[in-house]
Design goal:
By secondary structure, this protein is α+β, with helices and mostly antiparallel strands. The protein is 58% helix and 19% strand.
Length: 129
């Protein structure tokens, strides 16, 4: 319709404006979609957690965290306060390459989460976090 109006008026003014508005609307929708994405939310929480929770160990790019401490951290956030058990959190963390396993620490079996901070940074870059 904008093309018809422009052709009758002898200009390309309306078509250009419509294209610009359409592009702006698409960018806003994509931005909203990313912010609502659970993977985006997980990455955001993990990024903040890296500065606030002390890992059990660090070996190069690998960080090891006690699962219960990570769960407690996630439960304190608005987006993940509903998570009750580490199993539910583990399923979600797999999406961002955080692995779970059991290890014997100080004579006790404990569930831990392992993450490669270099891979994690790459993921954050992809999501523009």
């Amino acid at each position: 319709m904008a093309n018809v109006i422009d052709s009758l008026a002898g200009s390309m003014n309306l078509t250009g404006k419509m294209e610009a508005l359409s592009k702006k609307s698409l960018e806003e929708k994509q931005s909203d979609s990313v912010a609502q994405n659970e993977t985006y939310k997980i990455l955001t929480v993990l990024k903040a957690m890296l500065d606030e929770v002390t890992p059990l160990s660090e070996d190069g790019d690998i960080r090891v965290f006690e699962a219960e401490r990570v769960l407690e951290y996630f439960k304190k956030t608005e987006d993940f306060e509903w998570i009750e058990k580490t199993q539910a959190l583990t399923r979600r963390l797999k999406r961002v390459k955080v692995t779970s396993e059991q290890r014997r620490i100080d004579g006790e079996k404990k569930r831990i989460y392992t993450m490669n901070v270099k891979e994690f940074s790459d993921l954050c870059e992809r999501f523009k976090i």
